[in-house]
């Protein structure tokens, strides 16, 4: 059965973010490709159209996701340890290696932390699968919520994000998460 999808568009310090969600959970978080990237952390997250209350009434997971993203950009440490909006992922199979990698990442690597591709492979029970971990990152439909930006190279360099097009954004997000408030 096809899910009925609701959409919210947000302006954020890192540009426009589009969220798609059904009643079961968030399907997709789309980040704008950071061309001429000029982030402004003082910028409050705002809905492009409609109100957050309207969204919550229409589609609860979507409203929750909007709230989570607002809090995340205002003060990333405020969402540390908190539960996230539910996801409804249809892109990869439940029980697959990709699903396990992304689940571990979402539940074990919190705000302000990083993990290497190899460490995440080990956490998922296959220490030699760091290349497959890279593949799982590319399959991630819900960046920020499933924090693929926290997966870095073992030499400490940030590594690729959005197939290499979002590396500056990745660096900015990691900085944002450890910033003192
Ligand atoms: Zn759905």
Automatic annotation (TrEMBL):
Enzyme class, UniProt record, top EC level: transferase
One GO MF term: metal ion binding
Taxonomy, superkingdom: Eukaryota
UniProt keyword terms in alphabetical order: DNA damage, DNA repair, DNA-binding, Metal-binding, Methyltransferase, Nucleus, Phosphoprotein, Transferase, Zinc
Methylguanine DNA methyltransferase ribonuclease-like domain location: 10-74
Transmembrane segments annotated in the record for this chain: none
Reaction equations catalysed: a 4-O-methyl-thymidine in DNA + L-cysteinyl-[protein] = a thymidine in DNA + S-methyl-L-cysteinyl-[protein]; a 6-O-methyl-2'-deoxyguanosine in DNA + L-cysteinyl-[protein] = S-methyl-L-cysteinyl-[protein] + a 2'-deoxyguanosine in DNA
Role noted for this protein: Involved in the cellular defense against the biological effects of O6-methylguanine (O6-MeG) and O4-methylthymine (O4-MeT) in DNA. Repairs the methylated nucleobase in DNA by stoichiometrically transferring the methyl group to a cysteine residue in the enzyme. This is a suicide reaction: the enzyme is irreversibly inactivated.
Record protein name field: Methylated-DNA--protein-cysteine methyltransferase
UniProt source species: Branchiostoma belcheri
Classification of source organism: Eukaryota, Metazoa, Chordata, Cephalochordata, Leptocardii
